[in-house]
C-alpha cells in the first residue's frame, strides 16, 4: 500500500521491520537497502542531510547483510559499494576490492556460464558495468587518479546499456577535465 501511495518513507520503515524479523532473506534485505537509499536521496534533496545520512547507513547495513548471505551476487556487491563510495565516503579499500571482485566474477559468468534468459543476462551485464562505473567514481573521489577513472568509465560503457550510461559518461568527462588541468 505504501508503494502504491508513493510513500517511500512508509515503505522504507515497513521494509526495515520486515528485515529485522527475517534478516536472512536476501530479497527483503535488497529491498530494504533500495528503499532506504531512495528515501535518503529524496530527503537529501530536501536539505535534510542528517536524516539522509541515517538512511544511507541503513541502506549500507541492509546491503552488507545481503552480501554476507549471497556473496557472489554482483548486483548486491555493487550496491553495497555504491552506498559506501557515493554517500558515506568510507571503507575505500574494502569497496575497491569488492567492486573489482564483483566485476571479475560477473565477466567470468557472462563468458563461461551466462544466464539462460535474455533479461537475466542483460541484468548481469548491467551490474558488471555498474561495478566499473563505481570504480571510476572510486578513483575520482578517493585517489584522484584520472587515468584509472577514465579507464574504468570506458570499460563500464562496454556493458549494458553501453554509451547510454550517464554516470559513466559523467565520470569520463570528470576524468578528462582532471587530465586537462594537469
Structural summary, described in words:
- The longest helix has 26 residues.
- The termini are far apart.
- The model has no long low-confidence stretch (mean pLDDT 94).
- Helix 1 runs antiparallel to helix 2.
- This protein is mainly alpha-helical and 182 residues long.
- It is built from 8 helices and no strands.
**SS-derived structural category:** mainly alpha
> How would you describe the shape?
globular
Uncertain stretches of 5 or more adjacent residues: none
Instruction: Average the pLDDT over all residues and give the rounded result.
Output: 94
Largest sheet geometry = none
In N-to-C order, the SSE pattern is HHHHHHHH
Beta-strand segment tally: 0
Radius of gyration, Cα only, in angstroms?
17 Å
Topology:
Blueprint lengths: L7 H14 L4 H20 L3 H21 L4 H15 L3 H21 L5 H26 L2 H11 L9 H16 L1
Main attributes?
182 residues; mainly alpha; 8 helices; globular
Question: Would you kindly provide a brief summary of this structure?
Answer:
With 182 residues, the chain is mainly α. The protein is built from 8 helices and no strands. Helix content is 79%, strand content 0%.
Amino acid at each position: 500500500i505504501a508503494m502504491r501511495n508513493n510513500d517511500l518513507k512508509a515503505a522504507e520503515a515497513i521494509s526495515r521491520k520486515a528485515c529485522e524479523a527475517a534478516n536472512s532473506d536476501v530479497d527483503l534485505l535488497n529491498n530494504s537497502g533500495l528503499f532506504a537509499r531512495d528515501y535518503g536521496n529524496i530527503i537529501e534533496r530536501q536539505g535534510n542531510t542528517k536524516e539522509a545520512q541515517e538512511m544511507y547507513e541503513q541502506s549500507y547495513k541492509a546491503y552488507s547483510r545481503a552480501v554476507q548471505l549471497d556473496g557472489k551476487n554482483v548486483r548486491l556487491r555493487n550496491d553495497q559499494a555504491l552506498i559506501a563510495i557515493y554517500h558515506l565516503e568510507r571503507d575505500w579499500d574494502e569497496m575497491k576490492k569488492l567492486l573489482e571482485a564483483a566485476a571479475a566474477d560477473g565477466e567470468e559468468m557472462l563468458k563461461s556460464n551466462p544466464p539462460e534468459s535474455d533479461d537475466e543476462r542483460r541484468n548481469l551485464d548491467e551490474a558488471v558495468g555498474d561495478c566499473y562505473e563505481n570504480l571510476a567514481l572510486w578513483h575520482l573521489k578517493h585517489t584522484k587518479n584520472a587515468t584509472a577513472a577514465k579507464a574504468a568509465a570506458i570499460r563500464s560503457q562496454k556493458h549494458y546499456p553501453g554509451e547510454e550510461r550517464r554516470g559513466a559518461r559523467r565520470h569520463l568527462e570528470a576524468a578528462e577535465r582532471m587530465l586537462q588541468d594537469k
